[in-house]
Design a protein that fits this description.
It is a single chain. The protein is mainly beta and 481 residues long. It has one domain: Kelch-type beta propeller (Neuraminidase, 6 Propeller). It is built from three helices and 25 strands. The strands form six sheets. It has a five-stranded mixed sheet with strand order 18-22-21-20-19, with no helix packed on it. The chain has a four-stranded antiparallel sheet with strand order 1-25-24-23, with no helix packed on it. The protein has a four-stranded antiparallel sheet with strand order 2-3-4-5, with no helix packed on it. Helix 1 crosses helix 3. The radius of gyration is 21 Å and the shape is globular.
């Protein structure tokens, strides 16, 4: 028996693990689970036989070297955004957001589906499907958010989601206000992939340090124009982490997979080579490996890195000259009462570890079937909700009657193939486990819901969940959550 997506959502919610977060209750140094559902609960094709399922199905959204963004203006407190796949892992173009206010994931678009055996052939040279949505790719650290236009920004898509290393050199944008996709400018030189990016609030632009070519570039979303400043001389590896320091006007780059060094490019002179910064303290995080989380806390004027486990590392700039002074790392152990320990995805974290100023906390997701964690470093409630309540966030309403497609059925578990084929040009892919989820455990479907007995039991739970939702939520068409 197949269930509509909207009903699948309710079934997932009925089994939810945590109540909506009360951000005032967060204790510094403690990790907590804040999610009521998972991305898997919203899977548009859990049976994995759709034109966009590819080899892995929805698991590829996270497992396939994909990052994320924090949409500060989407929802009262902002939302964590997840999108991606590619390289024959997953072909779905849909977008998922986790609303910090409700503690729930929502699927805000549907995947392009042409009913064929594989939708990949429908992807154009500009990296878009016929409905205008971006063809999924490994996103690495190359997705972000533009606050002025309330848009999700993909810095480099693909013209072929089967191919590993094929890049379309284009910007792709999704507008949260009208829920439409837009195609941005093509970069004059090769955009490449697995680079590092950062949003510059002073200039309202995005900076990109490309891997492989090592070209430093700037994308202006207002003018839809690229500017290129040439290649830096320094050698560095792929999968580093980039972040902006607007106080010192720097692009900071942590080469954690390669040299283990911290570099800076002064944005007043973007033609500069990478400048190595002197560091001291608990420096082991600099060589932790590929694709760690690296974010900045504006009110603390510090940076925070996370690789795995309950510890975080805080980087504080020198009091004097940033070029000659020493940047100091401090390892922060969890509060003694901490009982939650987050785990990284073996294929990296990238931008799925994000700081939310609204609640003064970091949010993190590592698996499509796993929780969203939150962590507060220092006391304080944050900047508070958006003055206008935010754009229609992830909990902006649901339509109980929406049937976005066929829903459930048991998934007998993902096969062991993982990424179906060698990685081609990038050489960066690592083996997945046999379970297909990248976290060392099998990813099954909804178990008993594939049977008549399981379906009947779950329907009873779903009716109760739906009644509760109808009493307390505003329902709106177009969001499945």
């Amino acid at each position: 028996m197949k269930l509509p997506i909207s009903l699948m959502s309710l079934l997932g919610m009925a089994a939810g693990a945590a109540a909506a977060p009360n951000w005032n209750d967060l204790t510094p140094g403690r990790w907590v689970v804040i999610s009521e559902n998972t991305i898997q609960d919203l899977d548009p094709c859990p049976q994995r036989d759709c034109s966009y399922s590819a080899v892995e199905g929805l698991a590829g959204l996270i497992n396939d070297w994909c990052g994320g963004a924090f949409a500060a203006g989407y929802g009262r407190f902002g939302s964590l955004v997840a999108w991606g796949g590619g390289h024959n892992g997953y072909f779905g173009s849909e977008l998922y957001v986790f609303d910090l206010d409700s503690g729930r994931w929502a699927r805000v678009t549907d995947p392009y589906d042409d009913g064929s055996s594989s939708v990949a052939a429908s992807c154009s040279d500009d990296g878009v499907y016929p409905d205008g949505s971006a063809c999924p790719t490994h996103t690495y650290d190359q997705v972000d958010y533009h606050p002025a236009t309330n848009r999700f920004v993909i810095i480099g898509g693909t013209p072929d989601p089967v191919c590993g290393g094929c890049v379309d050199d284009r910007i792709h944008l999704f507008d949260f206000d009208d829920r439409t996709w837009h195609l941005g400018a093509r970069k004059p030189s090769a955009l490449m992939y697995s680079g590092a990016t950062g949003y510059d609030p002073t200039r309202d632009v995005f900076w990109l340090l490309s891997a492989y070519t090592r070209v430093f570039s700037k994308y202006d979303p207002g003018a839809d124009v690229w500017s290129e400043y040439g290649a830096v001389d320094n050698s560095f590896d792929i999968d580093g982490a980039g972040v902006l320091d607007p106080v010192r006007d720097l692009f900071l780059f942590l080469d954690s997979r390669g040299s283990g060094k911290l570099y800076a490019i002064p944005l007043s002179d973007p033609t500069s080579d990478l400048i190595e910064l002197a560091t001291e303290g608990d420096r082991e995080i600099q060589s932790a490996g590929a694709a760690l989380g690296f974010e900045r806390i504006p009110q603390e004027d510090c940076l925070v890195a996370w690789h795995d486990g309950a510890e975080v590392y805080v980087l504080r700039p020198p009091d004097g000259d940033w070029r000659t002074g020493s940047w100091r790392w401090t390892r922060v152990v969890p509060d003694p009462a901490n009982s939650v320990v987050p785990r990284r995805n073996p294929n990296g974290t990238y931008g799925r570890f994000r700081y939310a100023p609204s609640v003064n906390a970091f949010v993190l997701v590592s698996a499509y079937d796993g929780p969203v964690w939150a962590y507060r470093l220092t006391p304080g409630a944050g900047t508070g909700p958006n003055p206008d309540g935010g754009s229609d966030g992830a909990d902006g309403g649901r339509d109980a009657g929406v049937d976005a497609g066929d829903g459930a059925g048991a998934d007998g578990g993902l096969d062991a193939a993982g990424d179906a084929g060698p990685d081609g040009a990038d050489g960066a892919d690592e083996p997945r486990d046999a379970g297909g989820d990248g976290l060392g455990k099998p990813v099954g479907g909804c178990g008993g819901c594939g049977t008549a007995e399981g379906t009947a039991s779950l329907l009873v739970v779903a009716v109760g969940a739906m009644a509760s939702l109808l009493r307390r939520r505003s329902w709106r068409r177009g969001v499945v959550s």
